[in-house]
Design goal:
Radius of gyration: 18 Å
Strand order of the largest sheet: 1-2-3-6-7-8-9
CATH topology of one domain: SMI1/KNR4-like
Number of strands: 9
Structural class: alpha+beta
Order of helices and strands: HEHHEEEEHEEEEHH
Largest sheet: 7 strands, antiparallel
Mean pLDDT: 87
Helix content: 25-40%
CATH architecture of one domain: 3-Layer(aba) Sandwich
CATH class of one domain: Alpha Beta
Length: about 170
């Protein structure tokens, strides 16, 4: 995983009230792996572990990617749940996610790691129907989050000359 791509996104969302939790340590990740095993869901994939070493959870603009522990923002009262608690609730509700680990969510979508095929997927949270599949966590994260980032004009590619002309010209 190219952690610089993820860090670039964090740079863009940092000033927009994003919650980016400090990186997870080895002990936090090991505890999380043990707890996931105990509730009977797949272990954290290596790429998500790398993500947790950059940010132990992220919440921004409706996106949530879970970390190893729950975080509550005192000022707003917002709580970002942890990956074990979220998966435990889904597992207890028998939501049909046996070989899947829920990593995050946005609106009516959930983001999962499918241990059967080693793919990352976005699913409809109600029907569990597949919306999209990705080979890597980085692809899932970048594809979904960057669609909602407001770029400065300097970040956008130059306009096509024909597209910038008035219709009457």
């Amino acid at each position: 995983m190219d952690t610089e791509n993820i860090a670039d996104i964090f740079d863009k969302i940092y000033e927009t009230d994003a919650l980016i939790v400090k990186p997870a340590g080895a002990l936090e990740i090991a505890r999380c792996q043990r707890d996931l095993h105990d509730i009977g869901v797949p272990a954290l994939p290596a790429e998500y572990i790398e993500f947790l070493k950059i940010a132990n959870g992220v919440a921004w603009n409706g996106f949530e990617f879970f970390g190893t522990y729950q975080v509550t923002v005192k000022k707003s009262g917002y709580t970002l749940t942890d990956i074990v608690s979220f998966n435990d609730k889904r597992h207890e509700a028998k939501m049909g996610l046996k070989q899947m680990l829920v990593l995050g969510r946005f609106d009516d979508d959930i983001y999962v790691y499918n241990a059967e095929n080693s793919k990352y997927q976005s699913l409809d949270s109600l029907t569990l129907s597949e919306i999209d599949t990705f080979d890597t966590f980085e692809e899932l994260f970048i594809s979904n989050v960057t669609a909602y980032i407001d770029y400065d004009d300097d970040d956008l590619p130059p306009d096509d000359e024909d597209a910038s002309k008035d219709e009457g010209e």
